[in-house]
Amino acid sequence: MAGKEVKFGAISLIVAISLVLTACSSGNNGQTSSAAGASSSPGASTAAGASSGAELTKITQVTNWFAQPEHGGQYAALAKGYYKDAGLDMTIQPGGPGVSATQIVASGQAEFGMGQADEILLARQNGIPLVAVAAIFQKNPQGVMFHKGKLKDLSELNGHKMYVGSGSAFWEYLKKAYKLDQVQEMKYTGSLANFVAEPDSATQIYVTSEPYTMQQQGVDVDYFLNYDLGYKQYGNILFTTEDYLKKHPDIVKAYVEASVKGWNYYKDNSDEINKVLQETNPDLKLEAMAYGAKAEEPLIFGGDAETNGVGFMSKDIWEGLQKQLVDLGILKKAEPIDDVYTNEFLPVK
Questions:
Q1: Rounded CA gap, 79 and 280, in Å?
Q2: pTM, whole model, 2 decimals?
Q3: Is 54 helix (H, G, I), strand (E, B) or coil?
């Protein structure tokens, strides 16, 4: 999908440093609310559930891109009333170019955000105390796409072009792990035109999107998932701040449980919710969303989620990612990993 370089989870060093230097602002354009007009202030009331007659707690979550299947469960929870049932007046604010969920949540303009695991670690290093409360993707959908039959191993990319966002943490890892010292790095712009015209090139992608685009254009491709190449990080992390979590654990729990319920609904009812996504983002095509929903299913519901449920996070995965970023010099030091994430608010399976 054109423009996905902005959301491509691996955050650049420049962006990481600027997180604490840049003041953030965000309008309400494109926001979707489950109970417009509720008068409670953000986080002011206890999430007690609509059935109790209590006033709904007004909260906002910022996603990491425009509405699409990677956000299907969040929009399912909104459309089916799960947030409202949990006592929440939810507004979903779509991400997009120039929208930083970490900055918006850190500033208090939203209570919850969505991002990648490495973004959480980098934000914390730069003084933004975010905490991951659920990982929607057990395997991050980031990958490297190439023309079919051209690569059997990523090391064979030496001597060829790779379209990639500058400073991407996943790429720094792959270069070191696969000794990619002879790759011609080209700026990723979101367009696949150069990749299509150059059969020996490769490009960063989301496996839920770009392979479908190539399929529609009659271009035979294959891809490696970054997770399977060794850069094991969670995708579409739901996060809040340490301060909000400590002050409003009941709201955090209500939010996480409703979100997980939404993802379980989306798994079997993606065709229904994709129409909701299309209303929010008219550029989406139902056929492309159907492809994305199918492609992402094993990445969300497989792995540890099979046993522990959607959103579960492993200490080994978090520690492994942190060590990789320290080894690369992207992180200065390793902090106690238990401060970075918690499974406390996930529903008991």
A1: 12
A2: 0.87
A3: coil
